[in-house]
Amino acid sequence: MKTGLIGLGAMGIPMARNLHKAGFLHGVWNRTANKSSALAQELGCINAATPIALATECEVLVLCVSADQDVLALISLIAPSMPRNALVIDCSTISADSARSAAAILSQHKIDFLDCPVSGGTEGAKNAALAIMCGGEVSAFERAKPILAAMGRAVTHFGPSGAGQSAKATNQIMCAGIIRAVSEAMAFARAQNLPLESLVETLGQGAGSSWYFVNRAPNMIRGAYPAGFKVRLHEKDLRICREMAAAHGVALPTVEEMLCEYEELITQGFGDEDISAVHRLKQALFKR
């Protein structure tokens, strides 16, 4: 299946490389043209001049962009130009309602749509080890399996359009609680004058361990937070979670408290750091 990829950010570039390794990648497009031209030259694929130019040549189009409005604008733009019975796989994180809107737009042009948000950070994207949560028609999911398998390790169909995004929202709430707990624990441990490297090595084998503890506590030890998953992007995702919960008349404490802390980090100029930068705020508690 000739596959194009739109959106060459921290996740999109390694996903494109893995699609290339699997023999699927036909071309790329990115809003920042120098990224797409450099990657196309590296991989020997097409550097499309526009999203429409890429869409007309592909049976499958993978999207990996930032926000609901970006996805819906792209879908509206490319829908009339894609071949009938083509497939759009959206790996962006957007609301379940926006995913259903995208599916409805494409269905008018006889194009299938899957909402397939991913989790696993830049490490998972590079290693083709992402967790991919899928929503849409079963027939579309079956068609997409080889492409999804080129990018991820755990690929699961959760139900109709929007179900993938609902699963991703669940994941984002969990990430908020876990990274917050890890940040507080590491600030506490430092205040107790514990040997932090040994602590991570030991507790990483214990009941309280998690992916975030093992992979991001070292950031906290160093006081350096290179972006694996940016604060401002998780903040955007948690706002989606807030809206989805509000539809049920619920405010989730973990979401609300983390949004407050992310707002503080963004105000301080740390919005482009990894979400483990919340440790900055926790460490400051012990300096008062």
Give structural notes:
It is a single chain. It is built from 13 helices and nine strands. The chain has 288 residues and is an alpha/beta fold. The chain has two domains: 3-160, 3-Layer(aba) Sandwich (Rossmann fold), CATH 3.40.50.720; 166-285, Orthogonal Bundle (N-(1-d-carboxylethyl)-l-norvaline Dehydrogenase, domain 2), CATH 1.10.1040.10. The chain has a six-stranded parallel beta sheet with strand order 3-2-1-4-5-6, with helices on both faces. Strands 7-8-9 form a three-stranded mixed beta sheet. Strand 1, helix 1 (12-21) and strand 2 form a beta-alpha-beta unit. Helix 4 runs parallel beside helix 5, helix 8 crosses helix 11 (231-246) and helix 9 packs antiparallel against helix 10 (211-222). The longest helix has 29 residues, at 163-191. It starts with a strand and ends with a helix.
